Amino acid sequence: MKDDKKDEYQKALASYGEAVKAFRQSKFDKAEEQFASFMEKYGNERELVDRARTYLKILKERVGKPQERLTAKSDEDYYLFGVYKMNMGDYEGALKMLEKAREAKPKDARVFYLLAELACLTNDQETCLEHLKKAVQIDKFYGILAQNEEEFDPIREDKRFKAITLAS
After folding, report:
1. pLDDT higher than threshold 90 for residue 112
2. How far apart are CA 83 and CA 94, in angstroms?
3. How far apart are CA 100 and CA 106, in angstroms?
4. Terminus-to-terminus CA distance in the chain, angstroms?
5. What pLDDT is recorded for position 157?
6. What is the pLDDT of residue 83?
7. How far is CA 38 from CA 2, 11, 24, 123, 168, in A?
């Protein structure tokens, strides 16, 4: 019986830890969901629940209530939120926003270019090159831009990168 309580506490602690991690990474929507889920599932862990409530209060005060947060309504909104999330280091969130922007406007070169940068930042060279190639095919300006963009430093010497950017 004692081991069951200990195991349950360890699970609660792990769940709480994941929510705190999301909070520290500025993934506020994810943190809010995880704290709420944690409190619902492990409501008997009073000390941790009190701490989770404190984090939720901070989220509401600093970030705003969920209904007050901005929501994307157009491909431009998705693109701009993608830029914002990339700048905040939320690459997963940025990818979601940019994918939605791409779905809404599949011929937007700047979305492909940003997806290429994002892929490079996450060490996915193949995807980076694919997106960069599409961006340059749509608008050659992005080939010139990529030649001077530090995000592409890890692949700058790659023959495929040179072929894509020099074709512009």
Report:
1. yes
2. 7
3. 10
4. 69
5. 93
6. 87
7. 22, 10, 17, 32, 51
Q: Per the structure, how many domains does the chain have? A: 2
Domain of 54, in residue numbers: 2-68
What is residue 45's predicted lDDT score, i.e. its pLDDT?
Answer: 85
For range 49-75, the mean pLDDT? 71
Last residue of a domain, one of 68, 96, 113: 68
Is the separation of the CB atoms in 98 and 78 below 8 Å? yes
Q: Which residue pairs, CB below 8 angstroms and at least 24 apart, start in 64-72?
A: 66/29, 66/32, 69/29, 72/97, 72/100
Half-sphere exposure of 36 (CA within 13 A, CB side): 10
Question: What is the average pLDDT across 71-76?
Answer: 75
- Spatial separation of the C-alpha atoms in residues 160 and 100, rounded to whole Å: 27
Whether the Cβ atoms of residue 98 and residue 118 lie closer than 8 Å to each other: yes
Q: pTM score, two decimals?
A: 0.60
Co-location of 80 and 152 in the same domain: yes
104: CATH: 1.25.40.10
Cα–Cα distance measured from residue 132 to residue 165, given in angstroms and rounded to the nearest whole number: 9
Are the CB atoms for 121 and 92 separated by under 8 Å?
Answer: no
End residue of a domain, out of 42, 68, 94: 68
Distance CA 98, CA 101 (A): 5
